[in-house]
Amino acid sequence: xxxxxxxxxxxxxxxxxxxxxxxxxxxxxxxxxxxxxxxxxxxxxxxxxxxxxxxxxxxxxxxxxxxxxxxxxxxxxxxxxxxxxxxxxxxxxxxxxxxxxxxxxxxxxxxxxxxxxxxxxxxxxxxxxxxxxxxxxxxxxxxxxxxxxxxx
Length: 152
Known about the structure:
CATH class of the largest domain: Mainly Alpha
Strand content: under 5%
Largest sheet: none
Helix content: over 70%
Number of strands: 0
Number of helices: 7
CATH superfamily of the largest domain: Uncharacterised protein YqeY/AIM41, N-terminal domain
CATH architecture of the largest domain: Orthogonal Bundle
Distance between the termini: 43 Å
CATH topology of the largest domain: Hypothetical Protein Yqey, Chain: A, domain1
């Protein structure tokens, strides 16, 4: 079942159960998805594929994590808790992320598979990682590890 359908089904369930926080977050996701679809129209795409939806969700999680840090610095724990709750709902639609040891192993395997010898081959390694692991691998975390492995 496509992610798009998962959002709608989850929204109906949350509304029926009276879960206001989850309902609000799901409506926010659907609004962002509609914006993403509209932005893709000039390219001739009427509905973005699941891979782009997952990227959109990762972006939403990233911005909320940044907000949590700022709210905690500003001594606003209640707002940080709200953002954390939204992160939990958004991440429930993402595939499980690889743990740090698995990321290291994936980086080593990608470097070996591409025959990368130096930092100039970083793009090839990142492309191989993206193709092999897709949304399960957070590229923002993999990038520095690839760079360190190629530089060292």
